[in-house]
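Lecture notes, continued. The same structure-token format from the folding unit now serves as the input rather than the output. Read the line below as a description of shape only.
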């Protein structure tokens, strides 16, 4: 079942990526048709447009990958995902728009790019809404988490309330609690209904409880749990093949790099599932350097104008050099145009 869920999530991400690529590509086709109908003959031949439209489509998908738009996360993350989509799409298409300055001599229409920009984001949002609606029943069946909550205290109860108020993401099987072994059920008043959850045992029989109830997620809601306890529970969760999440406390600062998400207002860290892509830093560096070169070339006339104005305004060097501390404590020289006058005796 766990393997089927992961396969579905991977396939779902591929489908989303293909849909986003097609949405941007379709936007350029629509822009071409609108240009031909309302403006006149397009300066970009149809055959060339079909090839060149592959560039902004691919840049959009790459930007979404870097912005972790495709990562499936439980919890109410739709607003955060929308923010990432809009930001990543904007910068990918701004990069595309800057490339048109170099392609202008080849008849590339910036007006067409502008129209495609608007239709691109519209196509992406509509396409994702349709795809999400069609896939929701299957996704809910395969990705629904059967959750055990360790800790029946205030934090555990608050977590349970937030899970109940976030339908479709998790089903609470019950609680595990060592502090109150006499408890048989935990009752919570949520809205107008009273929800009752069974206390299925203690830490000593967590393996038996998880297997009997087909649990696939354990959430530790004991904020003062020792590191050794977390390590032991994490090893048991790996052996059982279930997800392991914790409600973080100050001691959990060691979890740097764990995947963070939230259920309601309760922050959680998922450990050991975040997979890195070895080429991501290289691709990001290549994109940073390329973007800096493009922006630098576009801004070159303004920089030359600034040089002339500074020299005419006052004596002294054009550039101000200041030493700064960068990544890993390494020092580097920062160059900026001088904005203050040089004192003279």
């Amino acid at each position: 079942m766990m393997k089927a869920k992961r396969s579905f999530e991977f396939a779902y991400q591929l489908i989303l990526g293909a849909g986003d690529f097609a949405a941007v590509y379709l936007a350029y086709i629509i822009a071409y048709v609108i240009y031909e109908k309302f403006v006149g003959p397009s300066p970009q031949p149809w055959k060339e447009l079909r090839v060149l439209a592959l560039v902004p489509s691919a840049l959009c998908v790459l930007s979404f990958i870097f912005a972790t738009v495709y990562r499936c996360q439980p919890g109410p993350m739709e607003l955060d995902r929308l923010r990432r989509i809009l930001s990543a799409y904007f910068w990918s298409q701004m990069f595309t728009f800057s490339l048109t300055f170099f392609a202008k001599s080849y008849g590339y229409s910036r007006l067409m790019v502008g129209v495609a920009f608007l239709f691109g984001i519209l196509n992406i949002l509509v396409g994702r809404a349709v795809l999400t609606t069609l896939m929701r029943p299957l996704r809910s069946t395969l990705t629904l988490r059967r959750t055990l909550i360790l800790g029946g205290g205030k934090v555990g109860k608050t977590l349970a309330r937030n899970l109940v108020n976030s339908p479709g993401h998790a089903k609470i099987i019950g609680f595990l609690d060592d502090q109150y072994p006499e408890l048989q059920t935990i009752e919570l008043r949520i809205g107008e209904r009273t929800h009752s959850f069974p206390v299925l045992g203690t830490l000593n029989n967590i393996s038996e409880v998880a297997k009997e109830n087909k649990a696939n997620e354990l959430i530790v809601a004991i904020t003062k749990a020792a590191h050794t306890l977390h390590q032991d529970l994490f090893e048991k969760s790996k052996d059982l093949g279930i997800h392991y999440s914790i409600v973080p406390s100050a001691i959990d600062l060691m979890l740097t790099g764990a995947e963070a998400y939230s259920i309601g207002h309760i922050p959680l860290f998922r450990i050991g599932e975040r997979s890195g892509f070895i080429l991501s830093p290289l691709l990001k560096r290549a994109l940073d350097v390329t973007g800096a070169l493009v922006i630098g070339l576009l801004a070159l006339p303004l920089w030359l104008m600034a040089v002339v104005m500074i020299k005419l305004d006052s004596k002294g060097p054009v550039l101000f050099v200041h030493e700064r501390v960068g990544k890993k404590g390494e020092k580097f020289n920062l160059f900026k145009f001088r904005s203050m006058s040089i004192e003279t005796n």
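Point for the exam: The CA atoms of residues 49 and 55 lie 10 Å apart.
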